[in-house]
Amino acid sequence: MNFSKTITYWYSENKRDFPWRKTKNPYFIWLSEIILQQTQVKQGLPYYEAFVSTFPTVFDLAKAPEQDVLKLWQGLGYYSRARNLHFTAKHIVSELNGVFPNTYSDIIKLKGVGDYTASAIASIAFNEPAAVVDGNVYRILSRFFDINTPINSTKGIKEFKVLASTLIDKEAPAIFNQAIMDFGSRQCKPKNPNCNICPLNNSCLALKKNKIQALPVKLKKVKVTQKYFNFLVCIDSNNNVLFEQRVKKGIWQNLYQFPLIETEKSISVDEFHLLKVKTYLLKDIDFDYSLYNKTDKIHKLSHQHLHTKFWIIETKALPKEAIPFSKLKSYPTPVLISNFINEFNF
């Protein structure tokens, strides 16, 4: 069986119709690849269309305020992707005269671009035979060739890259790379793939050895940490609210939120005085308070779970930096904050 030809033929019969597959424009392909990092196509497609419509060229993206970029990205998560996207657009315009790099070795130098993304852009936009290796490809190769090397180990990353590079169709790398990714997404699925209709089933070693569910092998993940967030939703009699920008490095850098106090555990209404002691905001003002959500809202991230409470602080007047309720939704916010704003209905 010819692995590459089988995959490519399957793709010709099952290809999905996406807008980024109708272009060789590296800017559009780059946008799609960054958006689809850690994001499913169904969720990412509307964002891709919004970015292409709002920023039709790299020059448009480069000159946009970062706040506008983050606002358009809102809801996708992993906001460092948006910050890197904006940074890279400015770099291409200011340092490369608006010309997108056209080789893998130059593309991978761009901020926010790793091996997979550089390979995808180089092959799809410029027909360079650079093999893509993403979760779908790891899964197909580990099953077909019965490879037990952990895919998230240093050895595994190198081993699968070398193997993928030997399999890529050097005459049509763009088609092959898209084919193998689609095949993993739709046919060689993580759970319960229909191996009976798989065109590779006669030669798949994992199928022969009944190891489909055991592959690919992954090293155990780092333990997820638990954090306890208390957001102070400070409201005054003039319908103003305190809102602040996170400036420290982190996943929510440059996004906006209500004043935040982190505690070592989830606190009750009776323990609210702990927050009053910890923040200057509440020391010299008279206020009434209530707990909006009696049970913690748990926001799960890849490396930590945020146990969150929203405290409603009502007072007569707030500092001059407070903003009107009506402007809250114009700021880029983490989805946790955005959901609360919509739910509370300011």
What structural keywords apply?
346 residues, alpha+beta, Endonuclease III, domain 1, Nucleoside Triphosphate Pyrophosphohydrolase, 2 domains, five-stranded mixed β-sheet, two-stranded antiparallel sheet, 14 helices, 9 strands, 13% strand, globular, DNA damage, glycosidase
What do these coordinates show?
- The chain is an alpha+beta fold.
- It folds into two domains: 3-214, Endonuclease III, domain 1 (Orthogonal Bundle), CATH 1.10.340; 225-344, Nucleoside Triphosphate Pyrophosphohydrolase.
- The protein is 40% helix and 13% strand.
- The protein contains 14 helices and nine strands.
- The protein has helices spanning 3-14, 26-35, 41-54, 58-63, 66-73, 80-95, 104-107, 115-126, 135-144, 154-167, 173-186, 205-208, 273-278, 335-344, and strands spanning 225-236, 240-241, 244-245, 256-257, 260-263, 288-291, 297-300, 304-315, 323-324.
- Strands 1, 5, 6, 7 and 8 form a five-stranded mixed beta sheet that branches. A two-stranded antiparallel sheet has the order 2-9. Strands 3-4 form a two-stranded antiparallel sheet.
- A hairpin with a 3-residue loop joins strand 7 and strand 8.
- It is globular, with a radius of gyration of 24 Å.
- The model has no long low-confidence stretch (mean pLDDT 92).
